[in-house]
Design a protein that fits this description.
Layout: H1 3-41, H2 50-55
Amino acid sequence: MRQGRKMQMLSRASSRILQADRREALLLDDLEEDLEFAEDWAGGGAAPKKDDREEK
């Protein structure tokens, strides 16, 4: 297999992986915003920041 074709295949594979990671990050960000909104709406005080939740 020629080097150019290998690089093209690797580039496509890495692009798919990065797109999936980006999609997951965007979904998690949306879920975090929804969680904070729900906690505020329910009157449960201030929602903990993302950094505070990760430390536990």
